[in-house]
Design a protein that fits this description.
By secondary structure, the protein is mainly alpha-helical. Helix content is 67%, strand content 6%.
């Protein structure tokens, strides 16, 4: 019967992809069992190699060493990691139904007006819109064909490619903020009971099922709210521009209507002489706003003076008592 494999630390480092220094650090932190002592040599086995590979896998999935220590302790106690890794796989899986596409540099030139733009391609790669194919310098993977199709349509409508890429950067920052808020929200109200300790197999299975249920909700929420906001803002924008075309006074949407205010003709004439006919409304609005703010500031100052007088009066009565 053959003996199980035995590795020196250098051999273990080579097979696992970790450095000798990292292996020793894992041992010091209790992540990796101590080697077996055989004569004057320290010997490692397949269990050490498997443990190192598992640690590397968990690190790639975003776990900290402290979390990995808890998971491995649970595993050593016989609780298993199947449920945990199933939960990780669920979170790490695709969050849309899109399938990755493929495009060549020539395809891109044809879709975007027939003029090559190498720097724009580099920017698209930086943004992750395109991913280089190893060994094929003129081919790219497209993680989101829908996103590329949007860019093509915008460019065909007259939007410069540079403006599209700049807009994508801005949108991405806002969407990542929304995603972070949604994760904070669901973590606080749904997943907190599963994350304050190393979950059992049953708890991990329940959490994975919750991820499957809640995964589409973020996109559905954003889709519904974006549709509502686009309709509201697009109508306002169209009415404003139509109003400008029809005589310089923006059209007012029904929900933005304000009560009409009659001003003395002499006042209107004086303002018109001062700022011109196109600036009358803006000047009157700015003057009214300034007056409102001034009155608010006066009210705050008066309230402060009254509070100070009340405190002084109370102090005088206390002294007299």
């Amino acid at each position: 019967m053959s003996e199980p494999p035995a590795y020196r630390i250098e051999d273990l480092a080579h097979l696992s992809g970790a450095t000798v220094r990292t292996i020793r650090a894992y041992q010091d932190r209790g992540l990796l069992p101590r080697p077996e002592r055989r004569g004057r040599a320290n010997v490692y086995g397949d269990a050490h190699l498997e443990r190192l590979r598992r640690i590397g896998d968990l690190l790639e999935r975003g776990y900290t060493l402290a979390s990995i220590k808890e998971l491995l302790d649970a595993w050593d106690a016989g609780r298993g990691l199947g449920g945990i890794l199933g939960l990780v796989a669920e979170v790490d899986g695709p969050w849309s139904d899109e399938r990755t596409g493929r495009v060549t540099r020539a395809d891109l030139v044809e879709r975007f007006g027939g003029v090559p733009d190498g720097s724009a391609v580099e920017d698209a790669v930086e943004l992750g819109v395109l991913e280089p194919v190893p060994g094929a310098p003129d081919a790219f993977l497209v993680p989101s064909p829908q996103l590329l199709a949007v860019a093509v349509e915008l460019h065909a409508a007259g939007v410069p490619l540079r403006a599209i890429l700049t807009h994508l950067r801005e949108v991405r920052a806002q969407v990542e903020h929304l995603a972070g808020r949604f994760l904070d929200f669901t973590t606080e109200h749904v997943f907190r009971p599963y994350l304050d300790h190393a979950p059992s197999e049953e708890e991990a299975d329940r959490a994975a099922a919750l991820v499957r249920r809640l995964r589409p909700l973020a996109q559905q929420t954003v889709d519904a709210e974006l549709a509502r906001a686009m309709r509201l803002l697009a109508v306002r924008n169209l009415r404003r521009h139509l109003g400008e075309v029809n005589g310089g006074t923006p059209a007012v949407a029904a929900d933005e209507a304000r009560a009409a205010v009659e001003l003395p003709a002499a006042t209107v004439d004086a303002v018109r002489d001062l700022v011109g006919p196109d600036g009358v409304s803006a000047f009157v609005a700015a003057a009214a706003e300034r007056e409102v703010r001034a009155r608010a500031m006066d009210g705050l100052a008066e309230r402060h003076r009254g509070d100070r007088a009340d405190r002084a009066d109370r102090a005088d009565r206390a002294d007299q008592a």
